[in-house]
Design brief:
heterodimer, A: 150 residues, alpha+beta, B: alpha/beta, 5-stranded mixed beta sheet
């Protein structure tokens, strides 16, 4: 298991994403899957950096661990504003360029890239857990609000 | 991320290589804005060297496309591959943008 804890600032984004990529490569995940994992983590971290701590500074703690062969668990923890990523509706992908809205794709991409997503609010912390297997589902990730990592 | 611009057949060809994350996507949009400000309306973006893109990069491309629509411009996305191609497909962008297999085929159709 390895953990990286740093202030929730965009300047730290690449330290987090490189930390996750290194872990995935160490578990012999292929480059294509490593990119997908990095994407999911980047989208979650950008949300936290932008919105979790509107009035103060705070940290993000990112933990990676192996869970059986070819299975990784990534836990992203912050002490900011409560935010359940699972409550966000998918964007409408149908409109043409003129009517298509610019935002809302980040969480949608997370759902597509990881195999399971879990969110819980515990002791003043947002705890987001991604379960990642060697292959992504070609449907949305399983969504489970209550999850124990024990 | 590195970005190179050239012009061929009255079309600005923007080649982007490396990784486009939330930190550098605004730089990419700024380069496209400068090209639009210089009067360019026909664009091909060459993604053959791009290995990674996140939603911030997608937003820059959509924002640029909206600006070009106001100017009766044209934007073709060429040579998508790997995870980048997958992200364009998942996000529905492959359906709303003109996609070409290569810069040459985009130019041939331009």
């Amino acid at each position: 298991m390895s953990t990286l804890k740093l202030p929730a600032k965009m300047d730290n984004l690449r330290r987090f994403t490189q930390f996750v990529s290194r872990f995935a490569r160490d578990q012999r995940f292929p480059e294509s899957r490593t990119n997908e994992i990095e994407l999911a983590v980047e989208e979650a971290l950008v949300n936290i950096c932008r919105y979790a701590y509107p009035n103060e500074t705070g940290d993000i703690a990112l933990t990676c661990r192996q869970s059986g062969p070819k299975r990784i668990i990534i836990e992203i923890e912050d002490s900011g504003t409560p935010f359940d990523i699972l409550s966000v509706a998918d964007p409408d992908l149908r409109p043409d360029i003129a009517r298509r809205k610019a935002g809302g794709l980040g969480i949608f991409l997370i759902r597509k890239m990881v195999n399971e997503i879990h969110y819980r609010r515990d002791a003043g912390k947002n705890i987001l857990t991604f379960i990642i297997e060697l292959e992504r589902h070609h449907a949305d990730a399983l969504v489970k609000p209550a999850f124990s990592t024990q | 991320m590195e970005v190179a611009c050239r012009k061929e057949k009255n079309t600005a060809i923007i080649s982007v290589t490396g990784r486009m994350d939330a930190l550098c996507s605004m730089d990419f949009e700024k380069i496209l804005d400068e090209q639009i400000a210089a009067g360019e309306t026909r664009f091909i973006i060459d993604f053959s060297g791009l290995e990674y893109i996140s939603s911030a990069g997608l937003q820059c491309i959509l924002t640029t496309a909206k600006k070009l629509e106001h100017r009766q411009g044209d934007l073709i996305l060429a040579a998508l591959k790997g995870t980048v191609k997958e992200v364009f497909e998942i996000s529905g962008f492959s359906s709303i943008f003109t996609i070409a297999d290569s810069v040459d085929s985009a130019l041939a159709g331009a």
